[in-house]
Design brief:
2 copies of one chain form a homodimer. Chain A is of the alpha/beta class. The N and C termini of chain A lie far apart (41 Å).
C-alpha cells in the first residue's frame, strides 16, 4: 500500500465518473448555492464548489442574499428553489448571520434537494442505514479509504471529534452494512484518549485542533485520516502532526490534498444522485 | 453501589414522576396504539403499554386494523390520528404484515406524535443532539444507569449490537453533550469482539442471542446492561450469561426486571412530552 493517500488523485477519478454520468443523463443537473454572507472564506468555498460542478458538466448558480436581510427572505428564497423544477440540489452555505436560525434554514430545504445531507430527515435515513444523501465529508472519507485499498470490514476505527458534519455521521456510515466497521467516537470528555487511538486500526482526526494527533498516540502500521483544515501562520495545517505520525503510519492523508478534495467530489455525486431521484 | 440494577424499582420511580406530571397538566394526555396483527405477543405488548399508561393517568386506546386490510387503510387510520386534536402520541405496533411497508407506515405518523421516536425526522434530531423523542429503550438504559449512580461521562461504553431501535440510537444518545460517554458499537462483523468488551467500563448487550456475553468477555468491575429478551424453553433469558458475568460485574441488570420496565416507563415520559409540546 502506498503511504500517502492522495486525495487529489482519487477525487479526480471520482469526478471523472461523475462527468461520465452527467453526460449520460437526459437533463443537465443543476446545483444552487445560497450565500448569505460577505465572509471571503464562505465566498471561496462556494466558488470552489461551483467550479468543480462546472468541470463535470453540472450547471450551477449562486443566489446572494444580503447578510442584513431577514430570515424570512432567506426562507422564501429556499422555498422558491424547492419549487423550481430546474433545480436538483440546494446548498445553504454556512455559517449564516447571527439573526438567522440555522436549523430552521436547513430544515427549509426540501429533503429531496438537500445534497449536503444536513436535513434531519436525511440524517434519520442515514441512521437507519438507508441514506439518501450522505454528508459529503464522511462519504468522501469512506470512498477515499476504499479507493486506496483499505478494507474497512471489522476494523477498529477511532474517530476523534463528534461534530454534526463529520464525527457523528461518519460513525453511523461506518456502522452500515455496506461498510461493517467498528467505530468508536472520542471527544473532549473522553478519558484516556490515547488508549483508544493506540488500539485503532484506523484513526480519523476531526477535532479542529492543529496537530492534535501525535506519534505517541498511534500504533505502528495505523492508517490515519486527517479531516482538519486549520490555518496557522497563513499555512494550512491538519489535525495530525503529519511528519511524526507518517513515520509510524501504513497510510495517511495529507493536508491539503487529502480529505478536502474528496468532500467536493462527494457533493457532486450527491447532486447527480438528486437529479436521478427526481427523474424517477 | 448495589450489584443488581433494579429496573422494576427504578421504573416505578419514573412512573411516579410521570403520574405527578400528568396530574399537573390541564388536559389528560392520550396515547393511541395502532395494532395490525393477530400475534399474541404484539397484543401483549400493546396491553402492557396501555396498562402502564392507565396507571399514571394517561388515556389510551387501541385501534385494531384487520391484518388482511390494505396498507392504505393503515395509512389513512394514521392520518386521522395525526389530525385528531385529542391524540398526543401514536404508536404503530411492529411488526406489520408482510404486504405493508413498515417504513412508509412509520413515516406516516406525524413527527409531533411519534412517541416511539422512530420517524426519520426524529432520528435526525437525535443525531444532531437535540432530540424530541428519544427511542424508549436507549432512553431507559441511560436513565437507569444514572439512577443507579453510574457516572457515564468519559466512560468507555461498548454496545454489542447495531439495531435501529437500540444499538445505533443508544450510541448517538451516549455521545450527546448531556451524557458525554465514549461509545463503541460492535456487531457480527467486528473483529476481536472480546478485546473491545474486555476494555469496556460498561457493556451493553443488545444482540438478541441468549447468553451471548460470557464472563471471559468482560473485566472485573464492569457494569453490564442486558437489553436482550429471549424465550428459551419457556423462560425469559437475556443476552448475558447472568450467573457467571454477575460474579465479575460491579453492577448488572437482570432479565426480566431490568431494561424491560424502563422501556415502558420511557414511552410514558415521551407521551407526556408530546402532550406538553402540543400545548405550546
Amino acid at each position: 500500500m502506498e503511504k500517502v493517500i492522495d486525495g487529489d488523485e482519487i477525487s479526480s477519478r471520482v469526478r471523472d465518473e461523475v462527468a461520465e454520468e452527467v453526460e449520460r443523463m437526459d437533463r443537465t443537473p443543476k446545483l444552487v448555492a445560497v450565500l448569505m454572507s460577505d465572509d471571503p472564506a464562505s465566498e471561496t468555498y462556494v466558488r470552489m464548489k461551483r467550479q468543480a460542478a462546472d468541470e463535470v458538466g453540472i450547471d450551477s448558480e449562486t443566489v446572494h442574499i444580503d447578510p442584513d436581510a431577514s430570515e424570512d427572505e432567506l426562507l422564501s428564497t429556499v422555498e422558491e428553489l424547492n419549487d423550481d423544477e430546474t433545480v436538483d440540489g440546494i446548498l445553504v452555505q454556512l455559517p449564516l448571520p447571527d439573526h438567522v436560525d440555522e436549523e430552521r434554514a436547513i430544515e427549509a430545504v426540501t429533503p429531496e434537494k438537500d445534497v449536503d445531507g444536513f436535513h434531519p430527515f436525511n440524517k434519520g435515513l442515514l441512521l437507519e442505514g438507508r441514506p439518501r444523501f450522505v454528508p459529503a465529508t464522511p462519504k468522501g472519507v469512506v470512498r477515499m479509504l476504499r479507493e486506496h485499498g483499505v478494507d474497512l470490514e471489522g476494523q477498529n476505527v477511532v474517530i476523534v471529534g463528534r461534530s454534526d458534519i463529520v464525527g457523528k455521521p461518519l460513525a453511523v456510515l461506518l456502522l452500515s452494512r455496506d461498510v461493517n466497521a467498528t467505530p468508536t467516537v472520542c471527544h473532549s470528555r473522553t478519558e484516556n484518549l490515547e488508549e483508544h487511538t493506540r488500539k485503532a486500526d484506523i484513526v480519523v482526526a476531526a477535532v479542529g485542533v492543529p496537530e492534535f494527533v501525535t506519534a505517541d498516540m498511534v500504533s505502528e502500521g495505523v492508517i490515519v485520516v486527517d479531516v482538519g483544515i486549520n490555518r496557522v501562520d497563513g499555512e494550512l495545517v491538519g489535525d495530525v502532526a503529519y511528519d511524526e505520525v507518517s513515520e509510524k503510519a501504513a497510510a495517511i492523508t495529507p493536508v491539503p490534498g487529502g480529505v478536502g478534495p474528496m468532500t467536493v467530489a462527494s457533493l457532486l455525486e450527491n447532486t447527480v444522485e438528486a437529479a436521478r431521484l427526481r427523474q424517477k
